[in-house]
Amino acid sequence: MFRYILKRLLQLIPALFGLSILLFFWLRLLPGGPENTLLPDDASAQQREALRESLGLNEPIIVQYGLFLKRLGEFDFGNSLQTGRPVMEEFTTRFPATAELAIAAMLIAVCVGIPLGYFAARKRGSFLDSSAVAGSLLGICIPVFFLAAMLKVVFAEKLGWLPSAFRLGAGARFTEITGFRVLDSVLTGEFDVTVSALGHLILPGLALSSIPLAVITRMTRASVLEVLGQDYVRTAESKGLQPTVVRTRHVLRNAMLPVITAIGLLTGSLLAGAVLTESVFAFGGIGSFIYESTQQRDYPAILGFLMLIAIIYVVVNLLVDLSYTLFDPRVRVR
Amino acid sequence: MPLLTVDNLSVTFTGDDKRPVRAVDGVSFGMDEGEVLGLVGESGCGKSVTSLALMGLLPSRGVEVGGRVHFDGIDVRSLPARRLRDMRGSQLAMIFQDPLSSLNPVVPIGRQVTETLRRHKGMRGKAARERAAELLDRVGIPDPARRLTEYPHQLSGGMRQRALIAMAVACAPRLLIADEPTTALDVTIQAQILDLLGELVRSEGTSLLMITHDLGVVAGLCDNINVLYAGRVIEASSRQQLFANPHHPYTAGLLGSVPRLDAPRGEALTPIRGSINDTIDWNDGCAFAPRCDHYTMECLTGTPELVPAGEGHQHRCVNPVNLDPGPADADRHGHVAEGDNVR
Amino acid sequence: MALGTDRVNKVDRLAELTAQRDGDAEGASLLRETFGRLRRSPMAISGAVIVGAFLFVAVIAPFVAPYEPGAQLWGREVMPNQNVFVGPRGENWFGLDHLGRDQLSRMLVGARNSLLVGVVATLLGFTAGAMLGGVAGAAVSLGRAWGRRLDAVIMRFIDMMLAIPALLIAVSIAAILGPSLTTVMVAVGLAQVPIFARLLRGSMLAQSHSDYVLAATALGVRRPRIVRSHILPNSLGPVIVQATLTLATAIIEAAALSYLGFGNPDPATPDWGAMLADAQRFLVGAPELAMYPAVAIIITALGFTLLGEAMRESLDPKLRK
């Protein structure tokens, strides 16, 4: 078990090394260069040259990469060109917002998708089943940013039921501990902040959950259908077990295995969807920042953020694989 | 009173877009307390479907079941689902063909044994675990206490089948149905499992319905044998009678296609030609006629009836073979000879 | 004599009785069988109808579009800043957009450009991905040490790419290329490369472990030939299904790129993604402006998805009976 984790983490190192080469050279192809972003248009050639020199851009590209790699070892991705602050700092201050949003979306997807998929499979061919199948097909076909904007217009701007932007209401006072507002406010006992933070999560969470919800519903349905036809379900029934025992211990427990893997793989689409959702709701997470960085050609920020996202994706999937071993004894022996 | 009576049982599969398939077509037989009955036939003859119908395990959708099944005087088919569940696992139990796919891969063996004890005997915790260990020990699994915590993939094929048997006999059922329990196993293991089954049912007085395609399996174990073809019983008799004196050409053919050590060297096996797909509807005549070497025009007009011939021996054939040339049967026998000429 | 007629009668009667049962026993080729199932699947039919209608509109668009899609013919009638929009009317069936252009003409011509984005992006992703995955799959199927090493190198690279969400790959490519229709095609297409590569390689690997490959090897068929004429053709099914599904993804992701500002800025060649991104700003005042392209995108994506899912189902050996 321990060796397995270690092996997986060690495998991450060459992958990240390769990724850094790829992204570094890739983003150097960006037209313009940072001096155009940082300096006004009427800056003199001398000023530009001085800036290039100070950023180390006049060194051979291999040397630049070497320097980049050296700092990478200390988790230093350089400074953002937009804000002048370290990329790592920008990331850590924004990441809790995105994580909170992604967790909210995943919770919605799991809590709705698994029961929906399960009952659709049990009542195969029923109205519920057809609606679940149709809904999950539709869910992956609606552009996320459009769904987010529609939710915002209808429920926030027209009906006024929910806030339309940001993570908290204007003027809210809160104590920052972890950056996760819901968690922090519960820890400090500021429950009015908890309510506000949750309220601000509903609409973006719903919008972001559309794709994972569709995938989890379909996956659960297909998986339950397959398990229902398995011999061991018949064995369980031949023992005269109560239907609830058959359904939970024998059907659901097996049917959840592929769904758990899917949840890990969906992290990627959540992070991509966050870019779109956050910019609609001005949520101020990493998604919004990546969006601004690409607009501003803030290449150290893009590079750093993409690498950190890749790391998060790999780590989340490692955690999912590890939790998988708790559910499936067959992968335990390694 | 017989323990189990099956009367005119029929099962029809009605797919969405396919034409209905009648898998079991009027099967009738009875079983006494403590009897070991073999249900023999090729794959596709409806023997597994019969066993699932007896247990009430066929899916409710796309399947039509007809006829009556009485267990211990109770009409099983009209029993409410709750009552039937109470009987399954305690009175009636079943062992399946493929032990790997029939065991839940993510639940420890022990749990799969104790869940039956808990359901029907109300045993929990330590008591249930100890009883489960006893059961595993009873079916010949070494080191049962350790095996309880293991998962199906950690056991060998024979051990898995033993575990399935332990689950089936956990509540001392009165009728045990074994559906091809040895087919998925190595030959050496097959014999061990058959010995175990025979020993278990004889010592507990359990009735055993043994479903198989293998005449070798029934030869050593069964008191009586029913041969099934295309969803109907075509011959029923005691084991000795059947092996010594098969009446139906199909049974005779099955026996003729089994290799024997006492056969003269160089003697070729005589296989039955064709396959179970070469069949006609029972309403039009004998379903075996297309593969039969003895058929006449008579075989193709109307359904042949199951007729008695000798003590406890019945067959469903117009032109039976191997009938004892007794005075009562002389006429029939002559008829067979004539039929042979036609060939 | 009598015996002879009896025998003829017997054979005839038997033939007649057995013939009744043999309706569907004839062997059909796998391809025809798959196709036959597709034709009976309601999912496939509705998908094909939607895709067919979309193709039809895309082809005839330039000939039937009533106005020049880029011309601001009624520019003075629309004032988005003061919330003045023009809805459907006699001369403009779908009304005007925020710059006073005919919405119907833009939708029709937009179909053509959206189709172009979908097809070109998918072809790009499919070709590059299938080449990478095919080389890796072939290398490992050949079963030599160098083959496994080549496979390991390619797959490390692919797995690396897979760790970054496709949209973010597309965004970083788009950032390099600058906003244009070509950018959208290239960015969306390249972002799909790792998925295609992974899929083809996995599919080839599964095939190379199958019994018929073992049988061919045992018969002395040479490895390269097995890879070329057995493994590769049999592995293409899932990749083709993925390509159909990618046509839907590509159109949706193209819209997302437009929303993020990397879309096509050329007013003369509108596409649904850019139209939706533009209209998003006026969602409160004129929601119908966004509705036209949004509904068109959703329905088209649904068409390709239905078709792809139906194909996946008909190729699934588990459902084949």
TrEMBL record, chain A:
Subcellular location: Cell membrane
Keywords associated with the record: Cell membrane, Membrane, Transmembrane, Transmembrane helix, Transport
Bilayer topology: Multi-pass membrane protein
GO cellular component: plasma membrane
CDD domains: TM_PBP2
InterPro entries: BPD_transp_1_N (IPR045621), MetI-like (IPR000515), MetI-like_sf (IPR035906)
Location of the ABC transmembrane type-1 domain: 95-324
Source organism, top-level taxon: Bacteria
Membrane-spanning segments: 12-30, 101-121, 133-155, 197-216, 257-290, 302-327
GO BP term (any one): transmembrane transport
PANTHER family to which the protein is assigned, alphabetical: DIPEPTIDE TRANSPORT SYSTEM PERMEASE PROTEIN DPPB-RELATED
Family per record: Belongs to the binding-protein-dependent transport system permease family.
Name used for this protein in its record: Peptide/nickel transport system permease protein
TrEMBL record, chain B:
Signal peptide: none
InterPro entries: AAA+_ATPase, ABC_Ni/Peptide_Import, ABC_transporter-like_ATP-bd, ABC_transporter-like_CS, Oligopep_ABC_C, P-loop_NTPase
Gene Ontology MF annotations: ATP binding; ATP hydrolysis activity
GO BP terms in the entry: peptide transport
Protein's name according to its UniProt entry: Peptide/nickel transport system ATP-binding protein
Organism: Haloechinothrix alba
Lineage: Bacteria, Bacillati, Actinomycetota, Actinomycetes, Pseudonocardiales
Statement: the UniProt record of this protein carries the keyword NAD: no
Membrane topology annotation: Peripheral membrane protein
ABC transporter domain location: 4-255
Top-level division of the source organism's lineage: Bacteria
Pfam families per UniProt: ABC_tran, oligo_HPY
UniProt record similarity statement: Belongs to the ABC transporter superfamily.
A GO cellular component annotation in the UniProt record: plasma membrane
UniProtKB/TrEMBL annotation, chain C:
InterPro entries named among the record's database cross-references: BP-dependent_transpt_permease, MetI-like, MetI-like_sf, OppC_N
Chain segments annotated as transmembrane: 44-65, 115-142, 154-177, 183-200, 239-262, 290-311
Signal sequence bounds: none
Keywords from the named record: Cell membrane, Membrane, Transmembrane, Transmembrane helix, Transport
Gene3D superfamilies referenced in this protein's UniProt entry, alphabetically: MetI-like (1.10.3720.10)
Keyword Transport carried by entry: yes
A single GO cellular-component term on record: plasma membrane
One Pfam family linked to the record: BPD_transp_1
GO terms classed as biological process: transmembrane transport
Subcellular location: Cell membrane
Membrane topology designation: Multi-pass membrane protein
Domain ABC transmembrane type-1: 111-308
Family classification: Belongs to the binding-protein-dependent transport system permease family.
Official protein name in the record: Peptide/nickel transport system permease protein
